[in-house]
Amino acid sequence: MASRKPSTDDTTHKLKEDLHHLTQTIEDLVSATADDSRSNIKELRARAEKRLKETRDRLESRGERLYDEARDSVTHQVDACDRYVHDNPWTSVGLGAAAGIVIGMLIGRR
Predict the structure, then answer these.
(1) pLDDT for residue 91 is more than 50
(2) Interacting residues of 54 by C-beta distance below 8 A, sequence separation 6+
(3) How many CB atoms lie within 10 A of CB 1?
(4) What is its main location (predicted)?
(5) Which of 21, 44, 76, 102 is deepest in the core (most CB within 10 A)?
(6) How far from each other are the two terminal CA atoms of the chain, in whole angstroms?
(7) Closest Cα partner for 44 from 56, 28, 63, 24?
(8) Segment 2-58, tens digit of pLDDT
(9) What's the maximum distance between 2 C-alpha atoms anywhere in the chain?
């Protein structure tokens, strides 16, 4: 059974939800500091720290996953380019020469 990759929209929605929960907990903590009840403040502080750690862990995990996906995509594209150059060396030389001529003409206009 293949696992479904979360889409960018799903990831963005989950991130917004995590940040909303974290913000709400921090707002509760700030509101509770107006009250002098020490046990209430300790409980809200513990909740805020827990949510902050969970959110940080999720963000790190998502960042690592996005980095891995980008690295794999770039590696695949580099491999495809390398195969094309090896399969079509004269076409590649021609494209390189044409690009060099165009760049040379643009620089020469200055």
Answers:
(1) yes
(2) 18
(3) 3
(4) membrane
(5) 44
(6) 60
(7) 28
(8) 455 566 677 777 777 877 787 777 777 777 766 656 777 778 777 877 887 888 788
(9) 79
Q: φ, ψ for residue 65 (rounded to 5)?
A: -65, -45
Cα separation, 110 vs 12, whole angstroms: 45
Neighbours of 48 (CB within 10 A): 19
What is the distance between the alpha carbons of residues 8 and 20, in angstroms, rounded to a whole number?
A: 18
Q: How many CB atoms lie within 10 A of CB 54?
A: 13
The rounded distance, in Å, linking the Cα atoms of 65 and 105 is 43
Other Cβ atoms closer than 10 A to 15:
14
pTM beyond cutoff 0.85: no
Distance CA 110, CA 85 (A): 32
For 19, residues 6+ apart whose C-beta sits below 8 A from its C-beta are 55
Please state at what angle helix 8-34 crosses helix 38-87, rounded to 10 degrees: 160
**Is residue 63 a contact partner of residue 71, using CB atoms and an 8 Å limit?**
no
